[in-house]
Amino acid sequence: MRGPIGEVVPFRPMSATSEIPAAYRNAAGDRGPIRLIGEGISDIRSRRRLVRYLVQADIRKRGADTLLGNIWWVLDPLLQMVVYVVFLSIVVRNGPPDYPLFIFSAILPWKWFSASITDATASIVRQEQLIKQIQFPKIVLPLAATTAGVVSFAFGTVALGILMIFFSDRISPYLLFIPVIAAVQYVFTLACAFLVAAGNVFFRDLGNVVGHVLRLWWFMSPGLYSLASLEQTGLMQRNPALATLAKANPFAILFEAYRMVIYGTPDGPPGPPNLASLAVLLVASTGLLALTTIIFKRLEPNFAKVI
Amino acid sequence: MAILRRPPKIDTGATHAIGATDLGVRYDLRFTRKTTIRGSLGQMVGRGRADQFWALRHVDLRVQRGESLAVIGPNGAGKSTLLQVLAGIIRPSEGAVEIRGHVSGLLTLGAGFDRELTGRDNILLGGAFLGLDDAVTRELLPSIIEYAELGDFIDVPLRTYSSGMRARLGFAIATSVEPDILLLDEVLATGDANFRAKSKARVIEIVGAAKAVVLVTHDMNWVTEYCNRAILIERGLMVMEGEPAEVVELHRVHTEEARARAAEAATAAGVDPRIVPGR
Predict the structure, then answer these.
(1) Is B88 in CB contact (< 8 Å) with chain A?
(2) Which of A108, B35, B93, B102 could cross-link B26 (Cys pair, CB 3.0–4.6 Å)?
(3) Which chain B residues are Cβ-neighbours of A18 within 8 angstroms?
(4) How confident is the model at residue A120 (pLDDT cuts 50, 70, 90)?
(5) Chain B interface includes A302 (CB < 8 A)
């Protein structure tokens, strides 16, 4: 047993690490898809602590050193809602009743998604220095970015609570479905996050593309309007294929579900979400997650070279 | 073609800690830094095969337990690439590498992990990145703080640190692990004279404790003094392997030649040879 030498080196020898003692690496790096998914899962399991620290760091950073700190997370979606309400009350005269709540039920989940994807896009490239110096599973970076978004979503529900005071007649037990819908959204977000994070390593301008795609996606999704009103437009009625596509949009399913439990319908109170379409989305998202995990793990060995 | 998942083992039962066979690392220049989508599309349409560059090729290497191997060579020769392969950061494009034991690399000492976090949080985060058990990191925490000589700054965000403080913290985190195999890349050039002496003592201590050391350095005194073997890498190829003094000598001769050639080329180009940079 080696000990520290006097005062100069006040270190004790390490007793344990979680690295594998013997490693063998060669050029034949082609691993099967099942094995890649397995590796991805074990990467995350073995580095749960790292994910937690990264999430905590992210939250602390966003909260610290700003005038209002975490209050921003509550104010942000509310202010965005006010902007849309003011703008749309000028353009569209007769919107659905209780319009603020109507659009807020979409703004809340969308802010979570767009912030997570934006953060995930930069998550790997931002750690350029570290990736060149330490071997660690890179998959934890987009995972942490997405998971940190859950916390800001949770703060957003505080904003929802404040807003509901003004629309108290729409408060219902169906609000308890929000975590269920959010869980489906989390799986879908994670699947997208892995893809954009890995892609941005190879194409540094992917961030710009992602920004525009997100903006377009938001306006194409029934957030500021209902899916029913979208289907009534001439364009959708002439093109049934387009209408099917609009309905298959994951955020059409998610927004409709959130709106159903928070707002209800323009003429009716809140009710249960369409669980069948949520289940379909969950299955599809899980499949997508498996696919993007494979893509991520395939590309991962090249990160240190390219970055 | 059948994929060979476990190619023939490198002589089993041997005492080596690191074994590399016909190691090669190829860089695809199509995907070098800051590629844009437009650029890549252009390349895909324009040229069929992208340019490739071998940063390292045909490297055969054995490092026995208890050995300290120096890797020397000019800038851009592939020394750091070799360390990155040994650390597992880069997967070899050709050949194979076998590592027996815990590896820790002090590759170009990091400036910490997150500028917005306090020194204390950086130690915890750093430990998690290095794959240490959280209990171990927490146990090491007081000694790391003491070693880094940060005082009350330990609970202040890293961005307020001076570069010397940051280097001390990075060094303290990286050397808190006692590995079987230690990889060092020019780590002795940071900090003030005081800390340099202290860090040198620490490195010697780890070198003494580690089962094998691979060190990249431009400090030839260090090579002849502390290493028992050396390799010279030039343009990705292993030019020589042997006694440190002999390898250092060859490196010196080659450097002289390169300088003479550069001066000649400069004279031919009509530039005053006295202002040619480089040593």
Answers:
(1) yes
(2) B93
(3) 131-133
(4) very high
(5) yes
User: Taking residues A83-88, what's their average pLDDT?
Assistant: 88
How far is it, in rounded angstroms, from Cα B126 to Cα B118? 12
The residue ranges of every structural domain in chain B are: 106-210
- Any A CB within 8 A of B31 CB: yes
CATH superfamily to which B106-210 belongs: P-loop containing nucleotide triphosphate hydrolases (3.40.50.300)
Over chain A, what HEC string results? CCCCCCCCCCCCCCCCCCCCCEEEEECCCCCCHHHHHHHHHHHHHHCHHHHHHHHHHHHHHHHCCCCCCCHHHHHHHHHHHHHHHHHHHHHCCCCCCCHHHHHHHHHHHHHHHHHHHHHHHHHHHHCHHHHHHCCCCCCHHHHHHHHHHHHHHHHHHHHHHHHHHHCHHHCCHHHHHHHHHHHHHHHHHHHHHHHHHHHHHHCCCHHHHHHHHHHHHHHHCCCCCCHHHHHCCHHHHHCHHHHHHHHHCHHHHHHHHHHHHHCCECCECCCCCCHHHHHHHHHHHHHHHHHHHHHHHHHHHHHHHHC
Interchain contact A9–B (C-beta under 8 A): yes
Between B138 and A190, name the one with better pLDDT: A190
| Selected residue with higher pLDDT from A23 and B194 | B194
B268 in contact with chain A, both atoms CB, cutoff 8 A: no
Closest residue on chain B to A12 (Cα): B140
- Which one of B91, B122, B194 would you mutate to disrupt binding with A, by most A Cβ within 10 Å of its Cβ? B91
Phi, psi of A32 (to 5 degrees): -70, 160
Chain A, residues 97-136, CB within 8 A of chain B, namely 129-136
Minimal Cα distance from B4: which residue of A?
A28
pTM, full prediction: 0.83
